[in-house]
Amino acid sequence: MLVLTLSVSIPGIKPPDCSMANAEDCEQTSILQLAVFFGALYTLAIGTGGTKANISTIGADQFDETDPKEKIQKMSFFNWWMFSIFFGTLFANTVLVYVQDNVGWGWGYGIPTLGLAISIFVFLLGTPFYRHKLPTGSPFMKMTRVIVASFRKANAPMARSLTQFHELPSMEYERKGTFPIQPTKSLRFLDRASLKTGTTDQWNLCTITEVEETKQMLNMLPAMFATFVPSATVAQVSTLFVKQGTTLNARIAGNFSIPPASLTAFVTVSILISIVLYDRVFVKVTRKFTGNPRGITLLQRMGVGMIFHILLMTVACFTERYRLKVAADHGLVHQKGVKLPLSIFVLLPQFVLMGIADAFLEVAKLEFFYDQAPECMKSLGASYSLTSLGIGNFLSSFLLSTVSKITKKRGRGWILNNLNESRLDYYYLFFALLNFVNFLFFLVAVKFYVYRAEVTHPVDVKEEEANVMGVEENE
Q1: What is the pLDDT of residues 224-249, one digit of tens each?
Q2: pTM for this one?
């Protein structure tokens, strides 16, 4: 953030001013300016990738699942975790955007840089009070050993008795504060990694628990793949949705206008309201019918979010079609930088629907990958959610450039610098269909998914769930 702040403050490395409405007339940036700016962005991305998965994990790890009260509190943790994140996003999309547009980019980046420094200091102050889990080694190394060992013993006959598979004594797991995992029937090929064949080095022999941990991480991959397209849809908010806003009348009253970039604040407000309603109303109502402490399962919540993605892109398609009609009716199709006689708030429905979709999908996605990951791989599980967002952004860029090139070759391009000459409605319809196909893939991917059994307490899982439900009803 410090380099990013300097890149928009120091003459020479500061990019020239540019208006999104007249992008073709902008002065070309130098290689040095691009290198510094994108270098700062990628450094920020690397730092985010190293901390974001771990910070949510350490937060969830503060709850003791052997305590019924803390366990039920943990079920709401990710709702309020995401609430706090999006509350910060709301500040960024309103106050910081205003500062960037009216004061300067130096202050616009300088304020969050200072805020980040303060947050690091506050986080470090709490270090003595956190519940820490002992490191258990690299999860990637453990998974690699399981895969290598299973391939090395690919031709070995499969054993029929559990005694022929390697496992540590229960005391070893209790000493580490963990529990052994019983063998499952999924991905049976990997079971060979724990098959006793005489060789005992770690690249030839793994424990049953290590094999099952690897299975759990691999079993979640189809669900992660199904989140790539929705993540690409999320990327449209800060790109094409905002660019649509630059062509519309942003005046609210008098001389006050809303910056197009601030439209994303409506997504955030929608998320904040939806999360509160979900946690305080939806869960309590649906729990009475389903008997599930969460109301609905995490995968069902993700599925509902995907349905909203299909709906919002369909709404965006019809909204854009109406915007193009207004441009044509007023003879403004070929005019550059001219505002259409149409309020910017016509885009409000698609921003609100995106917020509702995120309240279902994004929260459930983070909680699902954390919850279903083995105890020693929680951070890796949480990183699945971030991986989805990252790949979704790259997928969005790929689809945008590919569709733009293909449609330009065949005539009128769908995505041009002048949106009034473009056919974004076709592109949004393409995204709606893509989300529909992806939803079908999601249904197939999760049809046979089996939720990980909770093995964190020496009592029966069903008895523990009943106790938790009893505590909730009493409250």
Answers
A1: 999 999 999 999 998 999 999 989 98
A2: 0.83
Give 34's pLDDT tier (boundaries 50, 70, 90). confident
- Helix or strand holding residue 368 (H, E): helix 348-372
What is the mean predicted confidence (pLDDT) over 275-292? Answer: 91
- Which of 88, 8, 86, 18 lies closest to 40, judged by CA? 8
Instruction: Give the span between the Cα atoms of 139 and 186, in whole angstroms.
Output: 20
Contact yes or no for 83/270 (Cβ under 8 A): no
Q: How far is CA 65 from CA 62, 116, 297, 381, in A?
A: 9, 31, 18, 18
Per-residue burial over 132-161, b = 16 or more CB atoms within 10 Å of its CB, e = otherwise = ebeeeeebeebbebbbebbebbeeeeeeee
CA 11 to chain centre: 36
* 2-132+220-469 CATH pick, 3.20.20.60, 1.20.1250.20, 3.40.50.150, 3.40.50.300: 1.20.1250.20
Contact between 223 and 449 under an 8 Å Cβ cutoff? The reply is yes
Residue with tokens 């366990």, as numbered in its chain: 71
Residue intervals of the chain classified under CATH 1.20.1250.20 are 2-132+220-469
Q: Give dist(CA 375, CA 133) in Å, integer.
A: 10
Instruction: Locate all alpha helices (DSSP H) within 129-196, ordered by sequence.
Output: 139-152, 170-176
